[in-house]
Please model this.
Amino acid sequence: MFEPLHPTTPEELRDQLADAGRANRSVEVFGANSKHLMGGPRAPASVQISTTHLNRIIQYEPRDLTVSVQAGMRFADLSRELARHGQMIPLDGPWSSEATVGGMIAANISGSRRRLYGTARDLVIGMQFATLDGKLVQSGGMVVKNVAGLDMAKLLIGSFGTLAAITSVNFKLTPVPPVARTLLFRFPDAKSAVEARNAALQGVLTPVAVDILNPRLCAHLQLPETNFLLALQFAGNQEVIGRSTREAEKLGVARALAGAGEQEFWNAIQTMTPRHLETCKDGCVVRVSTTLADVGAVFASTEVPCHSHAASGVTRAWFPGPDEATLFLLACVKNGWKSLVEYSGESAKRGLTLWPEPGSDFAIMKRIKDMFDPAGLLNNGRLYGRL
Model:
């Protein structure tokens, strides 16, 4: 087995990609390789390139709330540096403690805080990337409002490295709130939890996160609640927390979490996928995207551990094997829900249709792939086996 290349400059990475392109050699580009179980199977490649030696902060302006960082820097290391200045990039999700910045962006990772802060597409203001034809492309800049030209960086977010290799990313930053608190509400069924969710969203509350957990997930996480659970997180100064708590009391009796207990709760949700795949070697995680009105129906369609970012309509279900996941995917397709196998064990991955109904916009995605990589050399199959 040959060793991966470790470029130390964007120019070196560009030249390595160009050499492979001219020789028509397949290429696998990755960061820390922490999310190899996400997306499609890793196809054998003639050249492997790791970005982990591109690992420094390029420019950081705390007063401007912006940072530019090389793609191979660990996201956790960047987060610690930003925290020293009371700032953050509010992205989280499975393996975010091990992943590189480029890996987080290429996989479009986000977590429960997407309700208030958005996803990578809302936080990335610029990017540099290297292409197979030997170019270093700069898109966007270091200002939050940058509308000059086509925002090509948006194409790279969620592309799993199938278009180009990210060399650096510019982010807009968010101040770390001084206080946070989570309220947990118990409900006998999904319908009641969704109704409470609706009331929270239609009222004056501005929660950071609005999540629903089913009883199987609560039991798996060893929570004292054994019913459906609505979790609302609030952040701000003490006055905001007090007002939010008083308003939320209209939804029912809640258990309040703060400090270490609150962090432990959200960490348990964030690390559910890694722990599941560690214990179930053929395990699968199916992600479903629906309207807010259909979240309750998704919960009703499965009995496995299930969790929803209930204010954005993104729901995940954890299955012990591919057979159960396939049956669930078929039900999703029948109901018109967008679904895919987000994570799966290597042995299970190759026998699954990971993305059964990519949708009408997939034709445009293929045309873009052909523009960047007409020979299909770069990270072949990583985009859920489709590209």
